[in-house]
Here is the input.
Amino acid sequence: MDAPKELKINGFASNKYSTELRNEFGFVKDLNSMAVQASAERAWLAISRFYDNCKTKKLGKKGFPRFQKDNARVEYKTSGWKLHPTKRQIAMTDKKGIGEIKLLGKWEIHTYPIKSFKRVRIVRRADG
Here is the structure.
């Protein structure tokens, strides 16, 4: 039997719950709101993919969601970061105090207009 509509969990409910977590935990409060929502969306996608695989009776592994304790990546959508005019550095503007980050990878980034950048993902790897 299905739960009432107000008790059902969906992507919007997970975003709403992420705002409650901001009030409860200090390390979440310092993050940008869009970064918190992006992580809630990734968690919801893992949960919904698992339940969809169970409902369709997919053969083999169902893709049980494994939640990470110490996540080494943060994704910022449209706010929380600013591209340096030289397009070689990104300045993080949230309350975590990250500062400026030098961009690695392809240096043809200066050929793209600044408006075309929609997301920034910061990944901390074990190799430094």
In short: The radius of gyration is 18 Å.
